[in-house]
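W.,

You were right to be curious about this one. When I first looked at the sequence I had no strong expectations either way, so I just let the prediction run and decided to look at it fresh. Below is the sequence, 238 residues in total, followed by the output.
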Amino acid sequence: MRIRSLVLLSVLSFFVIACGHDHENGIDPEHAPGYLQHHPIDPESGLILVDTLGYPGNHPTDPVTGEVDPQPVRDWEYIDQSNRPFGTSELRGKVYVADFFFTSCPTICPKVKSQMLRLEERFKDNPDFQLVSFTVDPKRDTPERMTEYAQKLGIEDMDRWRFIQGDKFEIYDLDEDYLSVALENDAAPGGFDHSGYLVLVDREGYVRAYASGLVEEEVDHLMEDIQLLLDDEDGSAR
């Protein structure tokens, strides 16, 4: 298990992707807003490439060349709010956004879910887009309870937005792949810590961008990143 304390720090790491871009659209890192820091930097201009996505996260590095070897999210399969098996195999070929929540959350979850609802509305006509919400409280968040929660949010398409219940300890490890924090904490409101990040994953299972679900401006920008991946139907951006 990777060191949890490095997870949030590592999201600021980034590197260049071999795909087309316009250097004139770059931004000086010193003047770039925080939500652009996961974009790669052009080695020639030193500018952040706004129309290109990197691979944020804590990836292995070749000890000789220093090159970063991006790794996809590990394979997983659990059950959704309709008690159906669901996992990474069903997400291959899809662009999706993941978050971590629990239905009794008294603090950030309603705000984060309001931003997820914005994504659902924005991309509802694209069959290649999905939303995935992992509960950090699987003991209480049964499929039935998550279905009720989804219905209260007004979600009509239970195929597009999956609420996932899995093994607690596996989920707490899986959060690191999604650049998030999910753990029990008696001192936290509701008894759980979770980051509120919305994490964007490409068609091949690689994390490509993220945003705070508490900041509307960041989610606005995440929508642009989502569109970049949806437009990249053959995965050539990798």
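Here's what jumped out at me. Residues 1-23 have pLDDT under 50 and may be disordered. And, maybe more interesting for your project: Residues 216-231 form the longest helix (16 residues).

Coffee later to discuss?

I.
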